[in-house]
Structure formats: C-alpha cells, structure tokens
Amino acid sequence: MTTLTAQQRQALLLDLLYQHLKGELSQGALLRTLRKNLLGYSQSVYAEKVGVSRRTLSDIERDTGNPAPAILNKVFRPLGLRLGLTPVHPQLLDKLLEGRAPPSP
Q1: Mind giving me the DSSP string for 39-92?
Q2: What residues contact residue 55 under an 8 Å CB cut-off, 6+ apart?
Q3: Phi and psi angles of residue 2, each rounded to the nearest 5 degrees, phi first
C-alpha cells in the first residue's frame, strides 16, 4: 500500500476521474495509475486480488482486447468504480461538469 492520506487518495481519484471524463486519460491508463499510485500493487498482485489473469489486466491497462463489462467491473470495483454512461458530446459533458473545478493534486 502507498502512504497517501485519505484526503490525498480522494484528490488523486477525483483528479484522474476528471481527466478520464474529459477524454484526457484512457480507461486503461486510469486503471494503471490507480493500481500503482493509489494501491501500490504490481499487476500480478492486483490481478490475483480481483480474480483475473495478469494478461487480462495488462490488456485492459494497455487498452487492447475487448474485455466484457463484467470483467471491467471486476477490476474497477476495488477502486470504488464501475462502468457507466459518459456523454460523448463535449458540450453535454461540460454542462455536467460545470462548476466543478478539477481537484488540486
């Protein structure tokens, strides 16, 4: 585990989610960054903990393959996340995020 405080962990999670929603960070990069920086786990350890192969986890983090939604939910659940709907039109996303400044790191 890393030595981030609860407040730092929350700020990191919110910042990365904001980047992901804005299209600046892929789903795989989000997972990889959270796994490493939030949890401090190697791919092998995290894959074992969530019940997927290391290869599957690696493919997801590299944004390759076509994992089933159930698998994606399985790897994101320990991070407090699940798959959901995200607006594809930037204007709608901006409206959704309006007034919500990105958290400071």
Answers
A1: I---HHHHHHHHTS-HHHHHHHHTT-S---HHHHHHHHGGGT-------SSHHH
A2: none
A3: -85, 170
Nearest to 81 by CA among 35, 47, 45: 35
Q: What is the pTM of this model?
A: 0.83
Tell me the CA distances in angstroms from 102 to 19, 34, 44, 98, one per residue in order.
8, 17, 32, 10
pLDDT surpassing 80 at residue 53: yes
Tokens 């903990």, located at residue: 49
In the DSSP assignment, the letter for residue 103 is: P
Supply 68's token pair.
């089933």
Q: What is the pLDDT of residue 30?
A: 96
For residue 70, what pLDDT is reported? Answer: 96
